[in-house]
Amino acid sequence: MATLFCPKCGNDSDVFYDNVCKQCFVGDKKLIECPAVVYSKICPTCGSVFKKGKWFSKQDESETIIECVKDSLKLDYQVKNLILTISPKQLDYSRYSAHIEAKAEIKGVPIEAAADAEVRISWETCDTCSRISGGYFEGIVQIRADKRLPTQEELEKCNSIAGDVAVRAQEKGDRLGFIAKTEGLYEGVDLYVGSIKLGKQICRAIIDVFGGKFSESPKLVGQKNGEDLYRITYALRLPEFVRGDIISVDDKVVEVQSCGKHVSGIDLETGKRFMENFNDLMEVRKLSRREDAVSAVLVADEGRTIQVMDPDTYESVTIKRPEFLSAEAGNEIKIVKTAKGIYVVP
């Protein structure tokens, strides 16, 4: 039987790759090539990283180093089934060492390689942080309430919603998805936002929770590259009514328990639950507040109706008996006097 030998090294071999033995085939291959020094640019304020000509949102610093090293590697074009392990180690504030181990196959031959590199970090302020520090904004969200002052709880919730929307925008890659400034005012709060898109998203998110409406007012502030630049003011109005308000809704009198996209509460005449889409209501006006309720004597309970003594005139007034009433004749109950009559409150 003839003995086969490698034409390159002369050693005996049963298997050949590109007409040479395994040792010669592997010896010619450079699985990975890596420069001795790799450079990375990171924002010291927010941790964003600059790569491929633009800034990307914050990520773990070690992950940034690993990605930087990966991007600098050159691989043999025939590589398949690559397994890459990069182990970064911090040397000082601006330097990392990175040990690289690679396992792969080239034409079915398993090959391993290792390399070391030093990563040097250039700390530079990113475009977003630079804009924030410079007071940059493209829009203002003015949060107010219709025909009243918003409560502190409402404003705190609105600020929380706006912050969550901004975080989600940044996570989706919107570099201008930030709130540059929050200005508290007697009549509400103003949010200065980094992008027009974010302003609209915040308005819609707040309305999803509270209801209400908003309008847009653009203002021309200059030009860039021949295009007009606008700042937009979003005038957001929270609903007029809040929990505890006594309102007239078409032919009903309702104590409001919540008011957002839907108005929910108690029909004070019948005691039944009330819920309607706010935008579907035709005639709505405020009659009183629960805190305006006064004590009155329940004179008589006649089943479907009751008699209540008017605390001002001392006259007995007959009204419908609401389902929630459990008091007996002679007991004191709470009532509100409105332009539509007297009503028992739960």
- On the 0 to 100 scale, the average pLDDT is 85
Q: Summarize the helix and strand pattern as letters.
A: HEEEEHEEEEHEHEEHEEEEEEEEEEEE
Q: Please give the radius of gyration in angstroms.
A: 36 Å
The coarse silhouette is elongated
Biggest beta sheet summary: 6 strands, mixed
Tell me the β content: over 45%
Widest sheet: strand order?
Answer: 4-3-2-8-7-6
Low-confidence stretches: none
**How many beta-strand segments?**
23
Which structural class matches the secondary elements? alpha+beta
Number of domains: 3
Molecular structure report:
There is one protein chain. The protein has 346 residues and is α+β, with helices and mostly antiparallel strands. It folds into 3 domains: 97 residues; 104 residues; 100 residues, no CATH class. It has 5 helices and 23 strands. Strands 4-3-2-8-7-6 form a 6-stranded mixed beta sheet, covered by helices on one side. It has a 5-stranded mixed beta sheet with strand order 10-11-9-13-12, with helices on one face. Strands 17-16-15-14-18 form a 5-stranded antiparallel beta sheet, with no helix packed on it. A hairpin with a 2-residue loop joins strand 14 and strand 15. The protein starts with 21 loop residues before the first helix and ends with a strand.
Describe the protein's topology.
Blueprint: H1 22-27, E1 32-33, E2 37-42, E3 49-51, E4 54-56, H2 61-72, E5 74-75, E6 79-92, E7 95-106, E8 109-123, H3 127-133, E9 139-145, H4 152-171, E10 179-185, E11 188-193, H5 196-210, E12 213-224, E13 227-238, E14 245-249, E15 252-259, E16 262-267, E17 273-277, E18 284-289, E19 294-301, E20 305-309, E21 316-320, E22 332-338, E23 341-344
Parallel strand pairs: 2-8, 9-13
Antiparallel strand pairs: 1-5, 2-3, 3-4, 6-7, 7-8, 9-11, 10-11, 12-13, 14-15, 14-18, 15-16, 16-17, 19-20, 19-22, 20-21, 22-23
